[in-house]
TrEMBL record:
UniProt keyword annotation of Glycosyltransferase present: yes
Single Gene Ontology MF annotation: glycosyltransferase activity
Species assigned in the record: Sphingobacterium wenxiniae
Alphabetical UniProt keywords: Glycosyltransferase, Transferase
InterPro entries recorded: PRTase-like, PRTase_dom, PyrR_bifunctional
Domain Phosphoribosyltransferase as annotated: residue spans: 8-157
Family matches, as Pfam families: Pribosyltran
Protein name: Pyrimidine operon attenuation protein / uracil phosphoribosyltransferase
Gene3D superfamilies xrefs: 3.40.50.2020
Length: 171
């Protein structure tokens, strides 16, 4: 018997949530001339690129740099790399971006990359927050907060990465 998938966000809803998150980021950091978006590969980075584009459109007077963090999620210890030097974020506000916040492990690993450099502030942005926190990390900006049971799975499909129309599914 095939497993049942329920659509929880369609393409338009994902875009609306992204715009809302971008405005929340600006409101929370209105005094900042520049910020750094840190996208966690793969879909978190795609989502961060989208947020960067929206932010640049609604606040062209500000600078939004983008860093890609690649994390070995199967490892029990932090093994990660960035496409730009982490010093790019020194003394700036950074927004750690991922597609889904589940246990918080991935965001914790992403945070770990920036522990040794001074930051003005760090916030987190996710498209979907599942609220199954095993780590003391919470989403500052989120598109949808979803209460699920542990055996349910949330899958986000983003056109640039998955070559499918944007959608978020619960299975």
């Amino acid at each position: 018997m095939p497993h049942k998938r329920t659509l929880i966000l369609d393409k338009n809803q994902i875009h609306q949530k992204s715009v809302r998150i971008a405005y929340q980021i600006l409101e929370d950091n209105f005094e900042e001339a520049s910020m750094v978006l840190v996208g966690i590969a793969d879909r978190g980075y795609v989502f961060a690129k989208r947020l960067q584009k929206i932010l640049q459109e609604i606040a062209p007077d500000k600078s939004f740099e983008l860093i890609k963090v690649t994390i070995e999620k199967t490892k029990r210890s932090l093994e990660a790399s960035t496409d730009l030097p982490i010093e790019t974020a020194k003394d700036k506000v950074i927004i750690l971006v991922d597609d889904v916040l589940n246990s918080g492990r991935t965001l914790a690993y992403g945070l770990g990359m920036f522990l040794n450099i001074p930051l003005k502030k760090m916030r987190t942005a996710v498209l979907i927050d599942r609220s199954h926190h095993q780590f003391p990390l919470y989403s500052d900006y989120y598109g949808l907060k979803l209460s699920t049971i542990l055996k349910e799975h949330v899958e986000v499909e983003l056109e640039e990465f998955d070559k499918k129309e944007d959608a978020a599914w619960l299975s």
